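Support request from a user on the community tier.

User writes: "When I paste my structure tokens into the form, the page sometimes reloads and wipes my input. The last time it worked, I copied everything first. Here is what I submitted, just in case something in the input itself triggers the reload:"
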């Protein structure tokens, strides 16, 4: 990944999708996991994806759904990347790659640390996201442990990020990327154009060296 990778997740409307693209997001996410206020049908996502330039990665977010469903919904919507946000095994990621999709796999820090060494080494060759235990809830988690022992591969920080805290966390933890949903919403499930712009700018801001 060149420069800080910024992903805006949980989009469902053309205006906020356009704001994310115009602000310079590297990736835009559509939630296909059921039961979220952000859940979209593949047909709606397809109409939105049609307006996303090729330089921007389109990501479908899934959580513990059958692999056949994931592949079917990802194909119907036209996303290029599948983000797993549950307990999906590594074999599911391999199957997706064989189908031509890229992947992202989210872990809570606890879940990631609990992986057997052999498992962790394998996941670290893929793109992983470190997130709060409850995804999409705007909750932060204790990142102090990440300062001492970050993952060896490129990793993306998520969980309770917003335009106010993202710059500091990026400078402190040096992730390869950041992912946000709640922190760019005016109310749960409703994205805000101004907050999206502020978030992307803040994520890529220079550190404040004036004390
Ligand atoms: O957004 C959801 O409701 C959701 C539901 C099920 C699985 C994943 C979900 N969202 C993932 C994300 O939006 C982000 O990748 C990440 O969790 C950050 O969310 P937030 O803390 O709200 O910024």
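"...and here is what came back when it finally went through:"
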């Amino acid at each position: 990944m060149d420069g800080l990778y910024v992903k805006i997740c949980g989009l469902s409307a053309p205006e906020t999708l356009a704001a994310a693209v115009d602000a310079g997001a590297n990736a835009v996410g559509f939630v296909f996991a059921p039961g979220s206020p952000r859940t979209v049908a593949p047909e709606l996502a397809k109409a939105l994806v049609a307006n996303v330039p090729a330089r921007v990665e389109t990501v479908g977010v899934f959580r513990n759904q059958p692999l056949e469903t994931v592949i079917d919904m990802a194909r119907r919507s036209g996303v290029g990347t599948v983000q797993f946000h549950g307990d999906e095994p590594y074999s599911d990621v391999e199957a997706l790659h064989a189908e031509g999709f890229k992947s992202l796999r989210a872990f809570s820090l606890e879940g990631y640390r609990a992986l057997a060494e052999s498992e962790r080494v394998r996941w670290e060759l893929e793109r992983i996201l470190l997130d709060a235990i409850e995804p999409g809830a705007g909750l932060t988690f204790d990142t102090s442990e990440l300062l001492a022992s970050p993952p060896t591969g490129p990793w993306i920080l998520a969980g309770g990020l917003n335009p106010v805290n993202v710059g500091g966390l990026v400078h402190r933890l040096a992730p390869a990327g950041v992912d946000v949903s709640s922190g760019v919403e005016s109310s749960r499930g409703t994205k805000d154009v101004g907050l999206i712009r502020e978030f992307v700018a803040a994520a890529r801001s220079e550190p404040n060296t004036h004390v």
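Agent notes: The reload is a front-end session timeout and is unrelated to the input. The beta strands are 5-8, 27-31, 57-62, 81-84, 102-108, 128-131, 155-158, 177-180, 185-187, 190-191. The pocket of LARABZUK is lined by residues 9-10, 31, 33, 36, 38, 61, 63, 85, 131-132, 135-139, 158-161, 179-183 (CB under 6 Å). Escalated to web team.
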